[in-house]
Amino acid sequence: MKTLRYIIVLICTVTLFTACNTSKTKDSGKVEYQCPMKCEGSKVYLEEGSCPVCKMDLQPTTKIVKKVLSNIISDKSIFNLTSKWNTQNGTEIQLEELKGKTLVMVMIYTTCKAACPRLTADMRNIDAKIPTELKEDVEFVLVSIDPKNDTPERLKEFAEENFLTDKNWTLLQGTESGVREFANVLAVKYKQISPLDFSHSNIISVFNPNGELVHQQEGLGVDNKETITKIIETIKSY
């Protein structure tokens, strides 16, 4: 009788193991490829190649297993900066807490009437062109160069006014010294010319998940195709 029970248990175990293997095989089925700009809408291809419309490399639509990030921070990483920042939600963080995502960062101030609204619109435009399945791997960060006036409360209002309320948007208020240090890393120049007005560089920067600068876009309303391509390449390489 014991022998019979043993055989039944063994058969059940083998059956469950086989079912699990079958499930894994199914989940890892054929890889489909799609234009990252979605020039042809939802059309997919079964082989690698380039988009017949914009000529960009087709990207896999299936989720790619991410590499394990190193705990070692290189000398070129912004995560070496120890300054503290307040988010639009009133949470205090250090830049290292953003580790693990591709970062798209820009420096602005909320009372700006000229360049900053354009920079913010450029950031939204870039966000809109990132494939949906990759959005959880990218963080859009706006850093204020006016920490005196851009309180967390004001940054939250600015986020709502400019439709920056998705979870992958972070707005930061730092200290005067922290902002200056961060601007030097990005090669962003700024100067206060009145209590509520600054002159400043118009640069959008892309960092890999280890905090290393991989791309910069300078200017207002420029063609952002190269920036979007670099963001997607960076996400997929980690």
Architecture overview:
The protein is an alpha+beta fold and 238 residues long. Helix content is 31%, strand content 21%. The strands form three sheets. It has a seven-stranded mixed beta sheet with strand order 4-3-7-6-5-10-11, sandwiched between helices. A two-stranded antiparallel sheet has the order 1-2. The model is unreliable at 1-29 and 63-67 (pLDDT under 50).
Describe the secondary-structure layout:
Elements: H1 2-27, E1 33-34, E2 59-60, E3 84-87, E4 92-94, E5 102-108, H2 115-128, E6 138-144, H3 152-161, E7 169-173, H4 176-186, E8 190-194, E9 197-200, E10 203-207, E11 213-218, H5 225-236
Using the CA coordinates, give the radius of gyration.
23 Å
How are helices and strands ordered from N to C? Answer: HEEEEEHEHEHEEEEH
* CATH class label of the largest domain: Alpha Beta
- The unreliable regions are 1-29, 63-67
Write a compact overview of the structure shown.
Keywords: Copper, Disulfide bond, Metal-binding, Signal. The protein folds into 2 domains: 31-65, no CATH class; 78-237, 3-Layer(aba) Sandwich (Glutaredoxin), CATH 3.40.30.10. It is 31% helix and 21% strand.
Task: Name its key features.
single chain, 238 residues, alpha+beta, 2 domains, seven-stranded mixed β-sheet, 5 helices, SCO1/SenC, copper, signal
